[in-house]
Amino acid sequence: MKKKLVLFLFLIICLFTITACSSKKEAATFEYDEASVKETATQWLDSWNQTDFSGYDDVTLDGLVSSGQLDEASKKVFTTWRQTQSDIGAFVKVKDVVIEEAGDMITVVFTATYEGTKNNVVFKVPFDSSLNVNSTAITVEETETFSGKMDSALFNTIIGMGTVFVVLIFISCLIGMFKIIPKIQAKMDKRQEEDFNVVTAIDNTVSQIAEQEELEEEEVLEELVDDGELVAVIMAAIMASMASNGEEVPADGLIVRSIKRTNSNKWKKA
Predict the structure, then answer these.
(1) Nearest by Cα to 108 from 93, 120, 118, 96
(2) Which of 50, 172, 247, 257 has its CA 20 to 30 A from that of 63?
(3) Could you report the per-residue pLDDT of 87-123, keeping only the tens digit for each?
(4) What three-state secondary structure class fits 63?
(5) In the 8-state DSSP scheme, what is residue 93?
């Protein structure tokens, strides 16, 4: 247990050491007067705040580039400054000024407040080793204040917890429906069974009707056969009677147009 604790502490120390090494900044390789550099940077800050970049629309910037007064890099910087100035509003005050050193370059960093945003605005003015300002490298950007970060964290926490509660409620409702689903399924199965019984009954009825029709057709055919035999017998009797009476029997035979049953009892008396 002690070995694990020592190993854990050693890892933490290593992480802090790596972080400290990575955050260590290189000192300036040249000498400079801090007050003079800050004064020059302040002039750039004042000039930036007093310039209305909204007048530098795309058409104006394209004209300045075509006339040679601006290059493409400066055009991009002016476009960024125009949008940033529109977002942050009017200048209020400078909260802090520091100088960051990085070898052959130093940067004066202003932390200022503006009317149009609750966040801090960081204005960076870079100087080379000759103490000249690289105007195209000046940056202006918003950074969240601690209260802003806390507000964002609180908002994200509320959204996250709200999402979790909504999902839990949904799952609870889904679990509650498990009791209802079998009942619904049973009703659906019963309805399907009833429909199946109805269809079966209809099929049986249709089958019975078809069988009855077939039986009737067979009876009709049998009657037709019986009638044919009866007709043949009657014709033979008639022809024999005609021959016995000396009547001439047609060579083509007799043609029977119809045979009708009579209710007379003469045949019984005969």
Answers:
(1) 96
(2) 50
(3) 889 999 999 999 999 888 999 999 999 998 888 899 9
(4) helix
(5) E
Tell me the H-state helices in the chain: 2-23, 34-50, 58-67, 72-88, 146-177, 180-244, 266-269
Q: Are 238 and 256 in contact (CB under 8 A)?
A: no
246: left (phi over 0), alpha (psi -120 to 50) or beta: left
Report d(CA 72, CA 75) in Å as an integer. 5
66-95 per-position pLDDT tens digit: 998 888 888 898 899 999 999 889 999 999
Per residue in 128-138, pLDDT tens? 989 999 888 89
Strands 120-128 and 139-143, how do they pair?
antiparallel
Q: 257-269 pLDDT, tens per residue?
A: 666 666 555 545 5
pLDDT in tens, 221-259: 565 555 666 667 777 777 777 777 777 767 666 666 666
Q: Report the candidate in 181, 85, 91 with the shortest Cα–Cα distance to residue 138.
A: 85
CB-CB contact of 88 with 116 (8 Å) = yes
Q: Residue 220's beta-bridge partner residues?
A: none
Could you tell me the CA-to-CA distances from 76 to 70, 87, 100, 198 in Å, in that order?
A: 10, 17, 25, 79
Residue in the structure block whose two tokens are 């000759």:
130
How far is 72 from 49, CA to CA, in rounded Å?
Answer: 23
Measured CA to CA, the distance from residue 112 to residue 143 in angstroms comes to 10
